Amino acid sequence: MNALEQTIAPFYVPVADEITLFRAAAASSLPVLLKGPTGCGKTRLVEYMAHTLGVPLHTVSCHEDMTASD
Q1: What is the pTM assigned to this prediction?
Q2: Each residue's pLDDT tens digit, 25-40
Q3: Range of the domain at 7
Q4: For residue 5, which phi and psi values (nearest 5 degrees)?
Q5: How far is CA 31 from the centre of its chain?
Q6: Which residues contact 32 (CB under 8 A, 6 or more apart)?
């Protein structure tokens, strides 16, 4: 991530209480599982929260044909 990406927050518009729930999970060191159709905003939420919380983000693309060796 370059310096510009670190200073500009990803655009995200909350639709319910997901920000509060995500913050509570992060504060308690609990894992978060996001499930939903392609394009519903899962990645954008995680990018936004990582930026907001000031933590690094590491992503892994998962798909239904994925195996443990992937």
Answers
A1: 0.76
A2: 999 999 999 999 989 9
A3: 3-53
A4: -65, -30
A5: 11
A6: 22, 25, 26
